[in-house]
Specification:
Elements: E1 10-12, E2 16-20, E3 23-27, H1 42-45, E4 52-55, E5 61-70, E6 80-85, E7 88-93, E8 113-118, E9 126-129, E10 134-142, E11 155-161, H2 163-166, H3 177-185, E12 187-193, H4 202-209, E13 215-219, H5 222-226, H6 232-249, E14 255-258, E15 273-275, E16 281-283, H7 297-310, E17 316-319, H8 341-358
Parallel strand pairs: 11-12, 11-13, 13-14, 14-17
Antiparallel strand pairs: 1-4, 2-3, 4-9, 5-8, 5-10, 6-7, 6-9, 15-16
Length: 363
Amino acid sequence: MLTLPHPRIEVAGALDLEATPTGVIPRRLPRWTVPQVPADMHRGVRGGSGVRLRLWPTADAVTLRLRAAVYHPEAAPPQLVTALRGDAEASAALERVCTLTDDGVPDRHAPFVDVRVPLPAGEGPVELWLPPGGVTEIAGVDASGLRELPEDTRTRWWHYGSSISQCSGAAGPLLTWPALAARRLGLRLQSLGFGGQAMLDPFVARTLRDSDADAISLAVGINIQNGATMTARTFAPALHGFLDTIREGRPATPILLLSPIAFPDGEDRPGPLWFDAEGRAHPQGDPADVVNGALSVGAIRGLIAEVLAAREDAHLTFTDGRDLLGPSDAALLPDGLHPSAEGYQILGERFARHARAIGFPAA
């Protein structure tokens, strides 16, 4: 078995490989961010959403030795590794998954599983997409006759968001909405969707500033409302500062600001959030407090629009998330907040159509 890192295997979608005693765990933020990442965020940073191994084997299958942990064992869909070559794909299911430890890594007492992934026929490199529903440790790759990889010259799209962008409940690695949209638009995806996050953290802004992004999208606001982590006084300056930091390194890169998709119970009511016995999300705040600066989702949308209007930035555009999943799509939000697996696919298709219509990313 080959181990990572390897000169002929690119771990695309990862910005760091965290070494363990038995392998590596891909991380979706650079190593320098580790001391700054909040404790509850590490499990999301290690998540497999958008992470794939890019390689060019001569064989018709590749075997990965994996130890995969899922975020929500009681509700997780089958965990798949999906091979993609051109438009053709093939998947293999993990026969065994384990739980996450309190440190946000797979249980190190759990056995590794060898997953034989059939490769679609054809020529050229293949991408092996990891499960988006948890954290995967990679112990080895069994692939014969690896050729040298050509450069991936597709437009580089970096997307930042919350659990709605991480899509741990998607039906497969290629069915998270950013992955699906990237395929439709012919883009190379870097997903920075982190469950429970998207708090406009400065270390994420610096990561985007220093990136090679050709286009950036920012889905912000939902967890700021859910956690009641900001007010009207602090949100707009924080968003300005986040954008200012990106512009220090990417002054002309197209940026698409996305307000939250529909959250019926949170449109006029601030957080914090709680989940009832049926798992449905409910904000606990008092709508009367919005006038004093508490943030409902509707208030956040208004502030995002004000930030956009205040900035003289020809490369910054805005999309209301309700144009992608709106109030009429409530049936696609089983907990009232997160899309279902079907909802993620619909969101990806709609985003792709919308992006083409508005010319994002610019040619």
